[in-house]
Amino acid sequence: MSDGSTQVKSFMVGLVHGSVSREEAANWAMARLKDESADYSSDANLWAALDRLAGADLQQGPGMYLHGEEDFRSWLADFDG
User: Fold this and answer.
1) Where are the domains of the chain?
2) Cα diameter, the chain
């Protein structure tokens, strides 16, 4: 598993267990997606996982998050493939 994959998995596990905030995961992932020196696009699974993490803090209304623990578990299962 590459370093990027290890970090992604760590953030996903953290979301599932509540040890990482949605905002922390989203900010971390967004920075990776914007990093032009890293070529995450060459790994479709890693890119999809980063994209999902970047949206972990999306809200559908004030204080109502679009994604929850069930989603985070699903993301992790898809990533582990």
Assistant:
1) 3-80
2) 38
Buried-exposed string 24-61: b where 16+ CB fall within 10 A, e elsewhere: bbbebbbebeeeeeeebeeeeebbebbebbbbbbeeee
17 C-beta neighbours (distance < 10 Å), count: 10
Return the closest-CA partner of residue 9 out of 68, 69, 79, 74: 79
The single-letter DSSP state of residue 22 is H
Q: Which of 59, 58, 48 is nearest to 26 (CA)?
A: 58
Dump pLDDT digits (tens) for 24-64. 999 999 999 888 777 777 788 999 999 999 999 999 999 89
Q: How many helices (H) and strands (E) does the chain have?
A: 4, 2
